[in-house]
Amino acid sequence: MIKVIQIRKTGGPDVLEYINRDVCNPQDEEVLIRHTVIGLNRYDVEHRNGIRKLKNLPAVLGMEAVGIVEKVGNKVNEGLKAGDRVGYCTAPPGAYCEKRVIHQKYLFKIPDNVQDEIAAAVLFKGMTAHYLVNHSYKIKPGAFVLVHGANGGLGQIICQWAQEKKGTVIGSINSDNQINTALQNGCTHVINYNNNDAISEIMEITKGKGVGAVYDPIGYDTKKISFESLCIFGVYISYGQISGIAPISFSLLSSRSLFATGTSIYHYKRDRLTLVLTAMEIFEMLRKKRLIVRINKKYKFDEIIQAHHDIENRAVSGLNIIKVS
């Protein structure tokens, strides 16, 4: 028997419940993993509260984890064997458990020089940041980009990666006490999006041109700043709706021939080759210290409900993990 955290219905953190469940042996191309560290991210919260739809209930939440291979199915052909350290972040939800059977196509090996905690903290967010700065909008040297939530876990990685690509990063935060965190993670400039003169600040920084792209996980609260700070042909990139949906109209887009896109990791990292190559790139960035992972808080497995309360109350930010063993 293993411990699993599931939900029977969507709602607040209190819908999370711990249960005991049998774990099956892996079949065919499946692998049994014993989790060591689980990544904590906002997708977990949005699945729990119903913003992001789950196929079936009851359901186990959790998007990303790192662990040890215990058993492999008789058709596993990706070079995986018992004892290997592996991670995943594009499988269907189900990481909130001690052990899990999962298809080999979602897994990639973790290098010896990368600790489990670092890998679990960065996998999902690193994969997301990779496609945001390379595909959703390809940052070129000198390009101005606005990153909302620059102090958050994913925001920190986007800012570092944008800096690595020699872009000029304007970090957007909602409290002045987050300025140092944003500057520490690659922002050249920092603005508080709650300030009335935030748009004027951005236009002054860009000498009246505006930014080439806005990366926005917030939505409704940052809509005005986002669209008024974009340059002609600028790109608005939504990867979250923390404060609610940002309504967009064609008349708004046509005002400066703007583009708007919503993104999903499942589309950008849908094939195994892309997944593995991106993982290798992330691990190489870590090895060369071009990507610095600063873990903010480590929760125990029996503290997941508290972790969800902390996220919703904005009592925690940055990169956070759940320790299983």
UniProtKB/TrEMBL annotation:
Sequence ranges assigned to domain Enoyl reductase (ER) in this UniProt record: 11-322
Q: What are the recorded GO MF terms, alphabetically?
A: mRNA 3'-UTR AU-rich region binding; NADPH binding; quinone reductase (NADPH) activity
Q: Which InterPro entries match?
A: ADH-like_C (IPR013149), ADH-like_N (IPR013154), ER (IPR020843), GroES-like_sf (IPR011032), NAD(P)-bd_dom_sf (IPR036291), QOR-like (IPR047618)
What keywords sit in the KW lines? NADP, Oxidoreductase
Pfam families linked to this entry: ADH_N (PF08240), ADH_zinc_N (PF00107)
Is the keyword NADP assigned to this protein? yes
GO CC term (a single one)? cytosol
Q: Does the keyword NADP apply?
A: yes
Q: What is this protein called?
A: Quinone oxidoreductase
